[in-house]
Amino acid sequence: MGKIRVKAFGDEELEQKQKLKEEKRKEAKKMTKVPGMKGGERIVAVGPSEEELATLDNKGVAEEEGFPTARNEESTGGKETSDRTPSKKHLEQKAFHSQKYQTLSDQFDKSKIYTIKEALELLEKLQRKSFDETVELHLNTLTSGISGQITLPHGTGKVTRVAIADDKVIAEVEKGIINFDVLVAEPSMMAKLAKVAKVLGPRGLMPNPKNGTITPKPEEVAKKYAGGQINFKTEAKAPIIHLTVGKMSFGPDKLTENIEALIAVIKKTNIVNATLKSTMSPGVKIKI
To answer: Which of 22, 195, 197, 262 is packed most tightly, with the most Cβ within 10 A?
Structure first.
C-alpha cells in the first residue's frame, strides 16, 4: 500500500491563512518604475505611489493657501482629515492674485509710517488703473464703543440710496427686495418694522436711534444721508473702524480733507494707528 496522507482537523484553515499571507506578501512586492531609470529597471514599491504623492502635494498647497477642506469620517473612525484639494482654476486665480499683490507690496517699505500726502501719492502709483478705486481708511482705536456721524466735505463718491419706512417698503422687504442703503423711520413705524428685523438687522439696515435713523423728521434726515452723511462705529468684537473716504479720482487734496475731517471727529487721542489703502492695493501706514 502506498503512503497514506492523513489530514488533521484544522489543516484546511491553516492552509487558507498561509495562502492569504502569501497573497498579501505578493501585493506588497509590487514593482514600480522610477522616473529616470533605464528600461527594465524596477524597484519594490515601499511608499506612496506617484499619484498619491501628487495628491499629498496638492493637499499641502490647499492647507498653505487656506482652501477649505472636506471631512472624511468614514475612513478615519470619526476623526477629521484634510481630504479636499483645490481646483486647478482656484489655484491659478490664487497664484495670480498673490503674485500681483506681492509685486505691489514690494514697491514700498511696509514698516514705514507715511504722511497722508505721501501715502496718497503712493496709492496713486499702486492702483491698477482698470477702474476708479475706492480709498479706505482703517483705524485701530483705544477702546470699543466709538461711534458717530459725519458728512464728508467731498462725499464718498458713492450714491447713497435712502428710503423712508412705510407699508410699501416693508412689504418689499418681506419679499426680499431691498432697494436702499439707509432706511429712515418715524418712531411710530418701529412696531411694523419689527416683523422684518431679522432681514434688516444682519445687514445693518434696521433704523436705530444711535445713528439718527429713527426720527420724527425722516425727510430731513433722508436728505442728509443722500447728501453724503455717513455713520461710523467700532466693530462689535474689536476696536477697529473701517471707513470709505472717497475715490482715487478725487485727487490728493479732496481725499486729504475728507481724511482729516474724519480724524478730527473721531479724535486723535482715540486712535492707536491708521492704515490707508485703495480697493486693490496693500495697506499703507499713515501718521495721525
So the answer is: 262
Output the nine-digit C-alpha cell for 210. 444711535
CA distance linking residue 44 with residue 28, whole number of Å: 8
What does the pLDDT look like over 40-61, one tens digit per residue? Answer: 444 444 444 444 444 444 444 3
Rounded CA Rg of the chain: 33
Please name the residue that has the C-alpha cell 472636506: 70
> What is 162-226's CATH number?
3.40.50.790
Identify each DSSP E strand in 152-280 by its residue range. 162-164, 182-184, 229-233, 240-247, 271-278
pLDDT at 17: 72
Residue 10 has pLDDT above 60, yes or no: no
Give domain 110-157+228-286's CATH superfamily: Ribosomal protein L1/L10, rRNA-binding domain (3.30.190.20)
- How many DSSP H helices and E strands does the chain contain? 9, 10
pTM of the model: 0.56
Helix (H, G, I), strand (E, B) or coil at 11: helix
Cell of 128: 491698477
For residues 279 and 242, the answer to whether their CB atoms sit within 8 Å is: no
Give the single-character DSSP code of 142.
Answer: S
Distance of CA 188 to the CA centre of its chain: 39
Q: What H or E segment, with its residue span, contains residue 278?
A: strand 271-278
